[in-house]
Design goal:
This protein is α/β, with parallel strands linked by helices. The chain folds into two domains: 2-152 and 317-332, Rossmann fold (3-Layer(aba) Sandwich); 167-313, Glycogen Phosphorylase B (Rossmann fold, 3-Layer(aba) Sandwich). The protein is 46% helix and 15% strand. The chain has helices at residues 9-12, 16-28, 46-64, 94-97, 104-112, 114-120, 129-139, 167-176, 192-202, 228-237, 252-259, 271-276, 288-300, 302-313, 318-332; strands at 2-6, 35-39, 70-73, 86-90, 123-126, 146-148, 179-183, 205-209, 222-224, 240-243, 264-267, 281-283. Strands 2-1-3-4-5-6 form a six-stranded parallel beta sheet, sandwiched between helices. The longest helix is centred in the N-terminal third of the chain and has 19 residues, at 46-64.
Length: 333
């Protein structure tokens, strides 16, 4: 079976969608009976982005996939009508839920193209139950057309090989730790300004790892993007990972931190609550005091949260995700 996979996110970002594409490809590449044809267009920058959205996705990608058995678009960008059975993955619908948080071009595409792409797809994949509900509610897609395939965790995110501390030792160590870590692109919905306020209230240093985004966001403690090996080390060295985003479709940093053996503080009532599965401290992301209290609670419960987080993260692998995606492709072919 020959499957065309859109890998354009790999040239656009190193964040969640790119991690999703890389993780799936790593688990699917060597599978017998699968011939993956990687499809991409353009490079970085606004001009390439506009050409992808106006030319490549509406017409070009379908033409390139015409002789294949299945086309899989790894974001909600794709053709309104494919020439072969087409699957589309939706990571979130923030552009519809919070359009004001996005640049003008993203808002225009969200209004004009997104619903047509989802209506024309033969199958829709959502990365969480939360995102599935968003697709149903905001894009008027029947629930039976959407299946959930959760993300996995890259193997580089793992605990420190040193012997694990007891629960009391871990709590004592966390209370003395030097920094809290946030991992996010600098954009409005990541809620980083409140994260800075909360860290101040808790009397803790905040380090922020992520790409420069949009919306004029600038925060204390920003260190920019780092390689994954360095990111894993930063996860392991933090007393806790703070992820108080206002909206996500999944929230990979939650799982990555847990897989590294680090307690997590994240937003109540979001996809991150679903992903955390009871293994994180949940806070009100609109209230810096609540977030600060969450940091203190993570210190106090550090040993328990490390254990729960490792157990939770172990259930999310790219092999499991790839099994579900391959099964879908074979149904469509």
């Amino acid at each position: 079976m020959r499957v065309g996979v859109d890998v354009s996110p790999l040239v656009q970002t190193r964040a969640g969608t790119a991690r999703h594409v890389r993780g799936l490809l790593s688990a699917l590449r060597e599978r017998p009976g699968l011939d993956l044809v990687l499809l991409r267009y353009g490079g970085t920058g606004r001009a390439s982005s506009i050409l992808r959205d106006t030319v490549w996705y509406p017409r070009g990608i379908a033409r390139r996939a015409a002789r294949l058995d299945v086309l899989h678009c790894t974001t909600f960008r794709g053709p309104a009508r494919g020439r072969v059975p087409t699957a589309v993955t939706v990571h979130d619908l923030a552009v519809l839920r919070y359009p004001a948080a996005f640049p003008r071009w993203h808002r225009l595409y969200g209004r004009a193209g997104l619903r047509r792409v989802l209506a024309g797809a033969d199958a829709i994949v959502a990365v969480s139950e939360f995102t599935k509900r968003e697709v149903v509610d905001l894009a008027d897609v029947p629930a039976e057309r959407v299946r959930v395939v959760a993300n996995g965790v890259d193997p580089i995110f793992r605990p420190d090989p040193a012997p694990r501390a007891t629960a009391r030792e871990a709590s004592d160590e966390a209370s003395r730790a030097g920094y809290v870590l946030a991992v996010a692109t600098l954009e409005p919905r990541k809620n980083l300004e409140r994260a800075v306020q909360a860290a101040r209230l808790a009397g803790r240093e905040l380090r922020v790892v992520g790409a420069r985004g949009w919306g004029g966001i600038a925060v204390e403690g920003w260190v920019g993007e780092v390689p994954d090996a360095e990111l894993a080390a930063l996860y392991r060295g933090a007393s806790c990972v703070l992820y108080p985003s206002l909206y996500e479709g999944f929230g990979l940093p939650v799982l990555e931190a847990m897989a590294c053996g680090t307690p997590v503080v994240t937003s109540r009532g979001t996809a991150m609550e679903e992903v955390a599965g009871g293994a994180a401290v949940l806070v009100d992301p609109s209230d810096p005091a609540s977030i600060a209290d969450g940091i203190t609670e993570a210190d106090r419960r550090s040993g328990e949260l490390v254990r729960l987080g490792l157990e939770r993260a172990s259930g999310f692998t790219w092999d499991v995700a790839a099994d579900a995606v391959e099964s879908l492709w074979r149904e469509l072919a």
